Amino acid sequence: MSIHVTLDVIALVAAIVGLGVAAQFLAAKYRVPSVLFLLLAGVAVGPEGLGLIRPDTFGDSLSTIVGVSVAIIVFEGTFRLEYRAIRDASKVVDRMITIGAIIAFVGTALTVRLVLGANWDIAFLIGALLIATGPTVVAPVLAVVPVREEVATTLEVEGIVNDVTAAVLATVLFKAMTAQYLAPQGYVWLFLQRLALGILVGVLIAGVVWYLLTRVELPSEAAPQTARLLALAGAVIAFAAADSVFSEAGIVAAATAGFVLGNLDLPHQEGILQFKRDVTVLVLSFVFITLAALLEFEELFALGVAGLVVVAALMTVIRPLAVFVSTAGTGFTTSERLFMSFVGPRGIIPASVATLFAVRLQTEAPPSDPAGATILLGTVFLVILVTVVLEAGFARRFAGVLGVTESD
């Protein structure tokens, strides 16, 4: 019996990998972000489609798989970030990850509270999760839409930093929901604990990897492969070490390790980057298809028209407000600001964390809240579905209409 179940899981993993590669092929051929095809593939094999993947298919291990996968994806994203590019766009980036994030957080929470009637705990939890645009959905868009470097860098850094911010802030808020007695300074302390630990662990792991790659002599034929594997191990170890102490600190650690290593003079750096890109494609495919397969239309339909109103407010009011306020008085043109307002799809972090919290809200007491769990999961997945389909799917065409694309 166990052998049969194992074979079924292996077959499903193989099918997911195959669908992921097919999605990447179609994305390259039609120059459409791959997340669109990955999302559609996930829905097709999930309970709403063929029913090959169900919520209990991977059991309790799914959250661990998602966590490690996100660490690899975030590590690869920060590894590619150059400090020079961030410094050149620092004014806008700083505003986007502070002022823009606050506008997104508060605006989303108020909208969910007023339109869906959710309690404040759930409203702020949704607001925190939907701060994240994320490298998993922004990077595929930028891969097929050639925009000015400052625009691309701003969107990419915003996605990476806000992924981390959303994960940590949502975890702190959820912990506060269970504690019920936290003073305001308690929220700040929980947030800073996770942030500081993640940065510390990330820097330490990056230092170890750097030392091994630059100070330890290896046979020339083994050095390139060893460098690639060390970088991959660094991402996973940084995540695991920090996450074992504080939940969600692992994402901060992986992001920090990737950024530090990416800006050091490492041997075989180009080979490391290419290897990480290939691995990221595989884990991105697996995670997106698997999480999309957990999508249940019943939870989306339960929100009714009010759910669509929330999504419309996020896309047409809150996101543009965050972008235009953050880019005021900078060198970005109106067309570029409109494009940045359009590109705000949500992805892996909101989906995975919302799923985890919804399960806890349904099964744990406190903070048992089945109705809140439905609003949480339904809202987050509806936002992901609509923003990925519309914003990722039409980003290239919209950029062409605005005239912000540069020659390939």
TrEMBL record:
<feature type="transmembrane region" description="Helical">
    <location>
        <begin position="195"/>
        <end position="213"/>
    </location>
</feature>
<dbReference type="Pfam" id="PF00999">
    <property type="entry name" value="Na_H_Exchanger"/>
</dbReference>
<feature type="transmembrane region" description="Helical">
    <location>
        <begin position="95"/>
        <end position="116"/>
    </location>
</feature>
<feature type="transmembrane region" description="Helical">
    <location>
        <begin position="301"/>
        <end position="326"/>
    </location>
</feature>
<dbReference type="InterPro" id="IPR006153">
    <property type="entry name" value="Cation/H_exchanger_TM"/>
</dbReference>
<dbReference type="GO" id="GO:0015297">
    <property type="term" value="F:antiporter activity"/>
</dbReference>
<feature type="transmembrane region" description="Helical">
    <location>
        <begin position="338"/>
        <end position="359"/>
    </location>
</feature>
<feature type="transmembrane region" description="Helical">
    <location>
        <begin position="159"/>
        <end position="183"/>
    </location>
</feature>
<dbReference type="InterPro" id="IPR038770">
    <property type="entry name" value="Na+/solute_symporter_sf"/>
</dbReference>
<feature type="transmembrane region" description="Helical">
    <location>
        <begin position="6"/>
        <end position="28"/>
    </location>
</feature>
<dbReference type="GO" id="GO:0005886">
    <property type="term" value="C:plasma membrane"/>
</dbReference>
<feature type="transmembrane region" description="Helical">
    <location>
        <begin position="35"/>
        <end position="53"/>
    </location>
</feature>
<keyword id="KW-1133">Transmembrane helix</keyword>
<feature type="transmembrane region" description="Helical">
    <location>
        <begin position="122"/>
        <end position="147"/>
    </location>
</feature>
<feature type="transmembrane region" description="Helical">
    <location>
        <begin position="225"/>
        <end position="242"/>
    </location>
</feature>
<feature type="transmembrane region" description="Helical">
    <location>
        <begin position="65"/>
        <end position="83"/>
    </location>
</feature>
<feature type="domain" description="Cation/H+ exchanger transmembrane">
    <location>
        <begin position="15"/>
        <end position="389"/>
    </location>
</feature>
<feature type="transmembrane region" description="Helical">
    <location>
        <begin position="248"/>
        <end position="266"/>
    </location>
</feature>
<keyword id="KW-0406">Ion transport</keyword>
<keyword id="KW-0472">Membrane</keyword>
<dbReference type="GO" id="GO:1902600">
    <property type="term" value="P:proton transmembrane transport"/>
</dbReference>
<keyword id="KW-0050">Antiport</keyword>
<keyword id="KW-0813">Transport</keyword>
<keyword id="KW-1003">Cell membrane</keyword>
<keyword id="KW-0812">Transmembrane</keyword>
<feature type="transmembrane region" description="Helical">
    <location>
        <begin position="371"/>
        <end position="390"/>
    </location>
</feature>
<protein>
    <submittedName>
        <fullName>Na(+)/H(+) antiporter 1</fullName>
    </submittedName>
</protein>
<feature type="transmembrane region" description="Helical">
    <location>
        <begin position="278"/>
        <end position="295"/>
    </location>
</feature>
